[in-house]
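REQUEST FORM: STRUCTURE PREDICTION
Request ID: SP-0412
Submitted by: Lab K.M.
Chain count: 1
Length (residues): 118
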Amino acid sequence: MPDDEQPPRWHTIGFFPAQPGCQLVFVNDSEDGYQTRWLPGWLLQEHMTAASHPCTRVVAACDGGAGELVAAITVPGFWKIAAPATSHRQLAAMIAERTHDHPARLSSACACEQVGHG
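STATUS: Completed
RESULT:
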């Protein structure tokens, strides 16, 4: 990215509730290697491209504190979304596999896809 370009500033334009029981999974240094938080829903976000075309995305929402919802992908350690019936044992196995496959990369592994319109 050239020096004069800034990363896009996403603006939330909509919110859709998640299915009850969905969890956000964050990797950390705890004994379990992870922490979960409830997934309140999905944020519909938009930014304008240099050509003045809207670019939109849907991202998992996370409680950013002070009653504010933020994109989970912006929270340090965000790794993945777990389905409602995912057990502690299943999460521990996924973390163990991730640690084994990527021992040096325990930070966020989420890649965000953007859908452009225009």
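NOTES: The longest strand covers residues 54-63.
Reviewed by: T.R.
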